């Protein structure tokens, strides 16, 4: 599959990344290699094979609806953010 | 040109579980500080794994059953990727390929059926508050369990859009799966509206309006979109597929951004959550827990209550449940009237709704009213005292006695009181006037007797006795 410059720019905009010219080229090459590698799987015939969602044979792993006190307090979590205000995470304006 | 509008609605319902969908923290953040109901899982710290809340599955089954939907025995979760500060994970855990709730339908009060395409479980996003130059993020709402209900494009008018949303709200409240507090966003509606010439086989290009939180704004936004799109089409312009925002104050929608395509969300199976495989038996057992639904109440009470009273009561599942505990037709209609005209008019009605008197107390009150031991005014007074923290649980009869509200219906006793009044000098002129044909002085005489009886006499009986004695 051919990776075009606009594919990289579209993916970057979905993730709100700004990329330099060099990065656009480098990522395009990387992505091409990745897809080429994965494409080996195309040789397999999978017409009548159910998609694999999970390799463990587990199902119905549910927990009870009970509140468990958290070790991590609000201040510890907020300390991980770049900037906070009024116990909230401060981010550049988004709309 | 005449166009046929077609409206599809997606409704998000916050489930009233104790904990969140994927973590063991408090799901009820009402009145709590920002970011105080957040776990490392909600915060998406590296290595954190979601742990599925079984109660959300049970509530989803109830919700599905309330909408006459098939419950899918096999469902699973997927990741929907998007980059926004309200979602620290960078994706939402949802059910894109295999939702838990399959096709069904919702019947509107008018009888119109709106088909449900499917409904799925997913986690809510955090809350953003926007300021001049920055935004603040509160993650309390992250991964509150939601079910998203997707309708088929069966709605063709603003009124049906309104009625559909309202009926969904009632179904969810009666099923007990949500607090149903619209003001606090417990249910939110996204509408998509498209117009096509009346004889067209294909739907037109649709515009979407997101995050409406009242039935009225749904109705207004649909009306606005139909007008806006008709005008554009009439002048030969094209409708752009886009998401539009609703400005409630101005009553109009404005373009926001062109819609991301499904492939932009890069859906993939959620590898951290094993599939949900439900047995027929489990689905049946859980479905059987569904309380009576609005249609059950309509069928049961249609002949007993007036339609407008019935429809008001259907907005309050707790009142409806209480009424269905009463047996006799006359008791039901008296209590239904007291609920709608007295209780709901009270300032504290919301508080009262949480602690209703027992069916026994209400029956006792209705009986006293029927036997004319209580006048209609006294019935209302005793009724309200049944909610009074100082008085409640004492029983209607005891309260009526304590307040001296029981009417005197005993004929002998009443006659004695009438005689006393008629012997008083100040009533002599009125008696002469009445005998001379002045009909309206009877009111004065009844009043005197009521005063003498300290308000306990039954006024219509008093009037009968007076007329007999003065004829």
Structural class of chain A: alpha+beta
Q: Oligomeric status of the shown chains?
A: heterodimer
How does the helix and strand content of chain B classify structurally? alpha+beta
Order of SSEs of chain A: HHEHEE
Return the CATH architecture of the domain at 1-44 in chain A. Orthogonal Bundle
State the shape of chain A. Answer: flat
Task: List low-pLDDT spans of chain B.
Answer: none
CATH topology of the domain at 1-44 in chain A: Histone, subunit A
Strand content of chain A: 5-15%
Q: What percentage of amino acids of chain B are in beta strands?
A: 15-25%
- What is the arithmetic mean of pLDDT of chain A? 90
CATH class of the domain at 1-44 in chain A: Mainly Alpha
Termini separation of chain B (Å)? Answer: 77 Å
Mean pLDDT of chain B: 92
> Largest protein interface?
A-B, 35 and 50 residues
Features:
A: 95 residues; alpha+beta; two-stranded antiparallel sheet; 3 helices; 35% helix; 9% strand; B: 471 residues; 3 domains; three-stranded antiparallel sheet
Outline of the structure:
The complex is a heterodimer of chains A (95) and B (471). Chain A is of the alpha+beta class and 95 residues long.
Please, could you describe this protein's structure?
The complex is a heterodimer of chains A (95) and B (471). Chain A is α+β, with helices and mostly antiparallel strands and 95 residues long. Chain A has a domain at 1-44: Histone, subunit A (Orthogonal Bundle), CATH 1.10.20.60. Chain A contains 3 helices and 3 strands; from the N terminus they run ααβαββ. A two-stranded antiparallel ribbon of chain A has the order 2-3. Chain A starts with a helix and ends with a strand. By secondary structure, chain B is of the alpha+beta class. Chain B has 3 domains: 3-282, no CATH class; 292-402, no CATH class; 411-470, Orthogonal Bundle (Arc Repressor Mutant, subunit A). Chain B is 37% helix and 19% strand. Chain B is built from 16 helices and 16 strands. Chain B has an 8-stranded mixed beta sheet. The longest helix of chain B has 20 residues, at 215-234. The model of chain B has no long low-confidence stretch (mean pLDDT 92). At the A-B interface, strand 1, helix 3 and strand 3 of A face strand 2, helix 1, strand 8, strand 9 and strand 16 of B. Strand 1 of chain A pairs parallel with strand 2 (52-53) of chain B, so a sheet runs across the interface.
């Amino acid at each position: 599959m051919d990776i075009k410059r606009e594919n990289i720019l579209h993916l970057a905009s979905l993730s709100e990344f700004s990329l330099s010219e060099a990065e656009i080229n480098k990522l395009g090459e990387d992505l091409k290699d990745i897809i080429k590698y994965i494409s080996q799987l195309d040789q397999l015939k999978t017409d009548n094979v159910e998609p694999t969602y999970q390799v463990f044979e587990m199902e119905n792993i549910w927990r009870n609806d009970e509140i468990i006190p958290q070790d991590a307090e609000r201040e510890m979590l907020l300390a991980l953010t770049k900037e906070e205000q009024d116990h909230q995470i401060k981010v550049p304006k988004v709309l | 040109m005449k166009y046929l509008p077609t409206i599809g609605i997606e409704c998000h319902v916050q489930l009233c579980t104790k904990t969140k969908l994927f973590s063991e923290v408090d799901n009820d953040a009402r009145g709590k500080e920002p970011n105080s109901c957040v776990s490392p899982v909600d915060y998406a710290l590296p290595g954190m794994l979601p742990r599925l809340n079984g109660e959300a599955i049970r509530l989803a089954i109830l919700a599905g059953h309330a909408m006459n939907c098939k419950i899918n025995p096999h469902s699973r979760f997927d990741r929907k990727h998007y980059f926004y500060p309200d979602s620290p994970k960078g994706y939402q855990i949802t059910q894109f390929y295999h939702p838990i709730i399959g096709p069904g339908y919702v019947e509107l009060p008018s009888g119109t059926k709106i088909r449900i395409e499917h409904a799925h479980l997913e986690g809510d996003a955090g809350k953003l508050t926007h300021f001049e130059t920055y935004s603040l993020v509160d993650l309390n709402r992250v991964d509150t369990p939601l079910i998203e209900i997707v309708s088929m494009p069966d709605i063709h008018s603003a009124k049906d859009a309104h009625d559909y949303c309202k009926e969904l709200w009632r179904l969810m409240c009666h099923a007990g799966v949500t607090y149903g507090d619209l003001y606090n966003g417990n249910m939110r509606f996204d509408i998509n509206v498209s117009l096509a010439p009346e004889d067209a086989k294909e739907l037109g290009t649709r515009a979407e309006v997101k995050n409406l939180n009242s039935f009225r704004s749904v109705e207004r936004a649909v009306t606005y979109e139909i007008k806006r799109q008709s005008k554009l089409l009439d002048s030969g312009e094209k409708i752009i597929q886009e998401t539009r925002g609703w400005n409630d104050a101005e009553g109009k929608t404005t373009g926001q951004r062109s819609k991301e395509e499904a492939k932009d969300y890069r859906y993939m199976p959620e590898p951290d959550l094993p599939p949900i495989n439900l047995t027929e038996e489990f689905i049946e057992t859980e479905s059987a827990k569904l309380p009576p639904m609005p249609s059950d109440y309509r069928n049961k009470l249609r002949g007993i209550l007036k339609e407008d009273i019935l429809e008001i009561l259907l907005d309050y599942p707790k009142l409806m449940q209480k009424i269905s505990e009463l047996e006799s037709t006359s008791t039901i209609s008296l209590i239904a009237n007291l609920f709608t005209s007295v209780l709901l008019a009270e300032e504290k009605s919301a508080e009262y709704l949480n602690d209703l008197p027992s069916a026994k107390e209400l029956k006792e009150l209705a009986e006293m009213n029927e036997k004319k031991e209580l006048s209609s005014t006294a019935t209302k007074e005793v009724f309200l005292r049944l909610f009074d923290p100082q008085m409640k649980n004492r029983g209607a009869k005891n309260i009526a006695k304590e307040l001296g509200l029981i009417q005197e219906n005993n004929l002998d006793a009443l006659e004695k009181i009438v005689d006393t009044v008629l012997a008083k000098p100040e009533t002599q002129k009125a008696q002469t006037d009445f005998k001379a044909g002045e009909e309206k002085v009877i009111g004065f005489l009844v009043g005197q007797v009521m005063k003498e009886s300290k308000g306990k006499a039954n006024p219509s009986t008093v009037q009968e006795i007076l007329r007999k004695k003065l004829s």
